Amino acid sequence: MTRLSDTPFIHPTARVKDSVLGRYTEVGEGCHIAHTTMGDYSYCVGSTQIAYATIGKFANIAAHVRIYASKHPMQRASLHHFTYRSAWYFEGEADDQAFFDWRAEQAIEIGHDTWIGHGAVIMPGVTVGHGAIIGSNAVVTRDVADFAIAVGVPAKPIRQRFEAPIADRLLALGWWDWSHEKLHVALPDFRALSIEAFLEKYE
Asked: Residue 179 above 90 pLDDT?
């Protein structure tokens, strides 16, 4: 068993580059993370790849997810990365930094308490709202609203997890900002109470 703590857990086979990881976070086996901020309690497992993303707290990211599928230069005569990773191919030639800057500008935003299913792909520039669920193998090309469930290729919302008044109350409560100690005290209620009862107790 891995006991998580204030110090992020990074599997020995994972790679993390130019990123910030919050408390109680986990980066699982074979995962690659670059240019990303991952909020407290969020985790990813099983060869997931993440780049240029801001991920909220309590994000649940399954195996083989790709967050930021890198775009190739479709407008050029060639799609190949010899045109922008040029130093790999030509002595004395610099990489095309402007192209990488363009990629970085198309960052992804993922909200708090989200669930990204196995094999899902989140494309550059997309925002996934708080509490949203992305189905397995979905390809997300457009924004997903708070508490929406989106599935398919391309991903489309099929329903909301909660009616709007409940969703609004959850957003206002913002339990994801509670202290570790308060989360621990409330654990039995997270497990046992209906969403309505939970809100009534903690609002």
From this structure: yes
What is the spatial distance between Cα 99 and Cα 73, in angstroms, rounded to a whole number? 8
Per annotation, catalytic residue among 32, 72, 81, 180? 72
Angstrom distance (rounded) from CA 175 to CA 179: 9
In the residue annotation, 184 being an active-site residue is answered as no
114 near 147, Cβ under 8 Å?
Answer: no
Q: What token pair was written down for 165? A: 């008044």
What is the spatial distance between Cα 177 and Cα 149, in angstroms, rounded to a whole number?
A: 23
Candidates 103, 126, 11, 130; CA nearest to 63 is 11
**Token pair of 105 as six digits:** 């500008």
At residue 201, what are phi and psi to the nearest 5 degrees?
-75, -35
pTM strictly above 0.85? yes
Binned at pLDDT 50, 70 and 90, residue 39 comes out as very high
Pairwise CA distance, residues 137 & 140, whole Å = 10
User: Which of the 8 DSSP states describes residue 20?
Assistant: E
Residue showing tokens 């398919």: 152
Which string of DSSP letters, residue by residue, matches 98-147?
HHHHHHHTS-EEE-SS-EE-TT-EE-TT-EE-TT-EE-TT-EE-S-B-TT
**In the numeric block, which tokens belong to residue 144?**
């997903």
Q: State the residue for tokens 């094999």.
A: 119
**Reduced to 3 states, what is the DSSP secondary structure of residue 97?**
helix
